[in-house]
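Usage

Read records sequentially. Each one opens with the input sequence:
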Amino acid sequence: MPAQNQSSGNGLRLFLYWLVVGLPLVWGIWNTVLKLPALFK
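and closes with the structure output:
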């Protein structure tokens, strides 16, 4: 049974890593999209 428990922990760790990488990435893309109209004026 320890393998199943470890697998669950790895899934949570993987989710947290994606969150750490994904949130700043989404924030940067969102800010870029908001500033796009100023580039085309």
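Summary fields computed downstream for this record:
- The helical segments are 2-39.
- DSSP finds one helix and no strands in the chain.
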